[in-house]
Amino acid sequence: MGGAVLMNYRLLRLPNALRKQTRMHRSPVRRLSNVTVSLLASLLGFSLPVSAEWIAWSTIPPIPQTSTPQSEALTQKKQPENPSAAAAATTTLQHQDKVQSQKTGDGKNHDKSKSINDSLLATVSSLERSGYVFFSLVFLLLFLLAILSWLTYQASTSAKSTGNFLRKDLSALKNDLLKLVESANKQALILEQTRHHVANLTKGLATHESTIYSLRQRLRDQDERLLGLQASYQAKLQTLKQAPSPALVQVEASQPIDKQQTLEDVIASLVEEYQTAFFHGDRSALRNMSSDQLNITQSSEDSLVKNSVLPTLLEIVQNGGSYLLIRRDNRHWLVPEFQILTSFTTTQPAKGIFNYHRENISTADLRWPAEVRDVGGLWEVVNMGLIAVPT
Amino acid sequence: MTTNDSSANILHHPWFPKTDPPLGGGSRSGDWLIREQRMLGTIAESLVYEVASSRVNSLPSPWSRALQFEQAVINERYPTRDDLLSELFGSLATVALWEMVGLKMDAERVALTDHTISPDEAVGPFARSLYLSRPSGEKTLYNLADGSNPWEVVYVLKVDNLVIGFTSPATLLCPAVHLPQAIPGMKWTAGGHFSEPTTFLSSQQKQAFADWLSHVRREILIAPDRNSQPMAAQLAKTFDEFIHKLTGGKIGNPILSDTTVANLPPRPRAISLLSRAAKGGDKEASLATLQLRDRQKRPLPQTPNRPVILLDPDMPNRLGILATEITLYKAATLESVGGDKRRLETLYGAEIEVLTPEDIFLPELHLLPGEGALANSWLSKKIEGKPIVNGSAVTPLLPLKECIRNLFSSEELSRQCTLSLVTTGGGMELKVTLMLPLEGQQSPYQITKTYPIKETNLIDEDLPVIALWPNISDLNWKHYVVFAEDRSVGLTVDGFPDYELNTGREGQETVKYFTCERFPDLIKLTERSQYRGLIPVNPPPPNSNSSSKWSVGIDFGTSFTNFFINEGSGPAPKTLETRVIPLTLARREFQLNLLYKYFIPETLLPKDANPPTSTALNTYGWREIPGTVPDLFHQARVQWPSSNANALSGPSVRTGFKWHQFQYQRPFLKELALLISSNAAAAGATAVEWAVSYPSAFSPNESRDYKGLWKDLCTELSSLTGLQQGIMADSGEGGLQTEAVAFANFFGNYRASLMVHTACLDVGGGTTDISIWQDNTLLHQVSVPFAGRDICTKVLQAKPSFIRFLFASQLTDDFADNEAKLRQDSNFNSWLDNCLRYHSQEMLTNRMKSYRRRQTRNKQVFDFVSLMAISFGGLYHYLGLILKALAKEERLRKQAAMPVYIGGNGARFLHWLDASGAFIKECDGDRLFDTLQRQSTGFASGSKGSAGTTLSDAFKDETACGLISKGMNLQGNFDPQDEVMIAGEQMIINGLVFNSLDRVIMPPEMDSVESFALGSLDELKQFVRNYDDAIAYLGIQTLLPIRKLTAIDSLWDDVETQVRAICLDSINKEIDNWEREPGFIIGLRALTTTLAKKWAEQY
């Protein structure tokens, strides 16, 4: 939820002009009540919007008729009609975010960051609210002190004769007031310290925010990798059925479309590069794409002849390699050398590297590279690629 | 103006001293004018000779040159003597040595009297002038027979059509005043005239010339027609001076040429002496004869049988010897032939072969992409440095011309050749040096050529697949194959004249096969038909000489073929080395694909389990002609087990040819035998003897053909391999042994098991060979066409989903979508046999145990295993019937069930029957089969004695091993043709009825099977009852009785239909082609097929 809160923070940020107005129309009383609600909500674990901006929003009175056209336009564009609408919008966004975060598999991390964020913001709100209360009290005390001074003066000049008991009472009241002022000064000192503490916490919050952002990035990467794996398995599955293009497999998958396209784009780019080089017979382009040449290891050949179910292993060779290793998107892919791809037109060896899909084409074509991983200097096929071959 | 033009001018436009008009008067000395040729006549006509009263001193005599030489000889103080004698010396050298230098000399007689009357306005007057001014004949060397003045007849001498002078009655020879061009090989003629020759002559030539001069000198002095003694003596003295200059006075016996110059007459003697040139005395040893070693010991068809002379103009520098001293061949020196190959060939072309550096080195160096692009070649290792083109390493080809193969082996070249990279301002260059061994030279002669590394010479295409078989020295082998991919672009192999070429083409793939009799150690590469260089192949490893004779047992099976080898230390399985070597580092997958598809792979897989190998052949690249036997390799070759799981199901793969399509047997067995032979040769063996088995189920014709095939193979193998090849003499009937006997030999001989009262069952893929032994003697043998494929494979084929269930999905992915196609796949059995071979053990020890536990029992598996048990049980029932029949014939001494030795590839399915995954003594299956056999025999002895089953632990090895095992010497008549099968069930053939215990003896007059049926299924029904009873009696819970698999009552209609279908297949077959099958086995096949069908339908 921390992510959701931050998102709200961004989404509901007010224009500067509006912020000024907001400050002008702030009502300490309403603020107090809203802060209280927020705190309560926070303590009870409700997912209410608790950002400072939301609080600010909720205190904005109806926009005066004198507002400028620009600010009006901005208001119409950026703001909901009223706090409840804003809350609804926020809730909707939160919901979307929650769905997304669930889908992307980072729920736990989001929960953790939410809890940190919530408590921080609750503290901020609480401190902010305490500040307003303090100033109100000081103002009230000073007002009372002034009244008392005035009453004392009146008593001394026009009613000296009214009795000693009244003077005694006033003196006692004055002492009380002085004590109260002293107490208020102490509170002010504490408040100052608290403010300093809040400033530190705000800095900490910013740090946490960047950490959370980084965490989100990592989660997104992991998410894409998972999507890639799923897409590959989907591709294999589909190949065995009707072997649609990997693109179709991607679309059918239940993953968010934008993330699917990320992996697909990487592979599409790789395949396109390969096909262009193949079409032009550009060996140097192919060499530039790849880092190493690979061949199936002798022991893997031996396993294959026994129809072993073990993944195929390949080794780097200096010359005569049949497959080329290409690194893309922090993953390693395997494509056939041109001659090998051409030979697939007539012979489709089942060696645990590529599946074959029959299409109405004249020569074999790469559809999807095989994926490999480094296993102690050897390369193990983790996902078989796909080659289109003539029907 | 060229030299030729000058000479033409001189001939046609004589130069004369300048005269005042008209012709008289003198002129300044040395002032000459060009005139027309006819002026000779004009001048001659205008001359007035008043011999008696006056002398004409102002004009030179036309004989003056001859007279000057005379003066030089006789007058030691003559002013130009030295120059003149040098010219005479040089001209005599030419006349003496023309033959040794390889030239030709002619002579033309000029008689002045013949020309004085010539109407030609130039010739006539000039001749008359010469005639009239002829010198006196008094001081001549010789007289003419007719007494005329010797000066009247002279002979103009020409060498290679170049006039060199004429004969002189005074000095023997008058050299031409001017030589328009140098005479080839005679550098002393290079200055436009003759000069001192000594410095240009080799020692041999000097001696020959000196000897010749000595000979002429002597002959002049004693010539019968000698005229002036002083002149002769003076000339002899001059010759002595020449001889002294040549050899310091040393003379030997002159050796003169056998040929004479035409037109030089025998008389006068002095003139005749010029007709025979010097031939040279003792020949100087050639310094330029190449020393051929390997190719001389074992020449190739193109290896020259004449001396090969290296002719390199740079020899003097490299050897530090004068060209005159470098004898090329016989009298020819480098000097004398002028470094000209053509001249040396003209001289000795019939005797020698001439080689120049240009004949050895290619003009350009061609490059292959990548470092170390060649395999099994020493070339890459020889290169000092790393040639690079455009930042990428390249591999050069050996830039030697193809003729080098005729002279040197690759092994010699590997020692003689060095390649070093040199970096120059212009880029990289490769310096190729060849050290050529020369006869009589301690140090080899070095020739070098430097090639720039040029991008334009990079053949930047995929390396072609090139492989060679076998990698054995040709001292031990006679037949080699170079396999190469053929393509329109890039490199390919071309053959030499002694190669034979065959090709194969399949779709876009074209391959070539070159066969030759000598180890192809130098491979000729071409690109677009242009020769590009050689691949020098590493010499084959030396033979191990570990054995002199190999005995090989070959078990040609339906699914697998196996062999055992006895190298002298007893029978043992042996993993074959294919002896194939690739010669390029082509893309490995591509290479593997081509080698598996069209040739032989480099390594046989799996490494630890081959043999046995699949009985499979492929015919890629061959358009099959029905019934035609395809040739090995270009038309058919063994389909070896491959890491490509789809390989065995390829469209041109042929399996099952043990029983059908017999034309494939020959190439399959030939390749296998060649590979085994190549291993034998590599081990140093000189002889291979084959012990071959065959099933007694072969029809008489099949048996005969199979024996004939092996006989022919042995003959062919002998010629191809150079090894003695033959069928093992004591291997059995007709040189071949039945599988049943060979199998029994394994237990009896190799395992030393008792064969006193024993039955052997060899359950193969297609047949089960049964033999009954009593007191080490064969009592009965029969081969029945019911084995592993009937027991398991065909059942599985009916239910592909069950295969997927049994095996890992990865194995069965290929037929996931097309079960109908799978059922029709002719190669399915081979494919599944391979699957079972490698995965049965894992399946039995893991998944099958789970499927068969009571708690987690899988009904489909349970039923399937029970079906297998019924099949095995049927075989045991038939075994019991055989014993019963033998007892009835009173041939069986002990009427008791027999212990059984069982093995073969199909017998491994016995392990499936037990829930533990292992068939052991006293397991449920063992007890069941024991009981079934006893019940079937019906012997009164009942349960006496042991009739347990011993399952072999050497599946598929038994027959091959048994074929070459010696031991207790099992006896009996092993010819299956003399053994007649026992019906087992009533059979009616052409109306003849054979009861279950009868032998099916066909009358000799019966030619064909016209009608065939089983009279009843009584024995089969009895078997079913026995089976179910035995299950119940023994309390077996792990196998189902038949009645639990199907309703017995409704079973028999289907079985009878199956039986009828099987019998119909046998009708209208000639007796000799009829594969005999006992009636009971026919019924058993029908029963198991029906049960399998029901099982497949049920699930």
Question: What is the compact description of this entry?
Answer:
The complex is a heterodimer of chains A (391) and B (1099). By secondary structure, chain A is an alpha+beta fold.
SSE order and pairing:
The complex is a heterodimer of chains A (391) and B (1099).
Chain A: H1 2-11, H2 16-24, H3 28-44, H4 52-58, H5 69-78, H6 83-103, H7 107-158, H8 164-241, H9 246-252, H10 257-279, H11 283-289, E1 292-296, H12 298-305, E2 313-317, E3 323-328, E4 331-336, H13 338-344, E5 354-359, E6 365-368, E7 370-375, E8 378-383, E9 385-390
Helix pairs in contact in A: 1-6, 1-7, 3-7, 7-8, 8-9, 8-10, 9-10, 10-11
Chain B: H1 3-12, E1 15-17, E2 32-34, H2 39-46, H3 64-74, H4 81-101, E3 105-111, H5 112-115, H6 123-132, E4 153-159, E5 162-168, E6 172-175, H7 203-222, H8 229-247, H9 269-272, H10 294-297, E7 308-310, H11 315-319, E8 327-329, E9 332-333, H12 341-348, E10 353-355, H13 357-360, E11 367-369, H14 379-382, E12 383-384, E13 388-389, E14 392-396, H15 404-407, H16 410-416, E15 417-424, E16 427-436, E17 445-452, E18 466-469, E19 480-486, E20 491-494, E21 500-506, E22 509-516, E23 522-527, E24 530-536, E25 549-556, E26 560-566, E27 571-573, E28 581-582, H17 588-598, E29 613-614, E30 616-618, E31 637-638, E32 653-655, H18 665-682, E33 687-694, H19 700-721, E34 724-727, E35 736-738, H20 739-750, E36 757-763, E37 768-774, E38 777-784, H21 788-797, H22 800-806, H23 809-812, H24 819-824, H25 828-845, H26 847-852, H27 859-888, E39 900-903, H28 910-913, H29 924-937, E40 949-951, H30 958-963, E41 987-989, E42 992-994, E43 1008-1009, E44 1012-1014, H31 1018-1034, H32 1042-1045, H33 1048-1066, E45 1069-1070, H34 1079-1098
Parallel strand pairs in B: 7-10, 12-15, 25-33, 33-34, 33-35, 36-39, 39-40
Antiparallel strand pairs in B: 1-2, 3-4, 4-5, 5-6, 8-9, 11-14, 13-14, 15-16, 16-17, 18-19, 18-28, 19-22, 20-23, 21-22, 23-24, 25-26, 26-27, 26-29, 30-31, 30-32, 36-37, 37-38, 41-42, 41-44, 43-45
Helix pairs in contact in B: 2-6, 3-4, 4-7, 7-8, 18-19, 21-25, 21-27, 27-29, 27-34, 29-31, 33-34
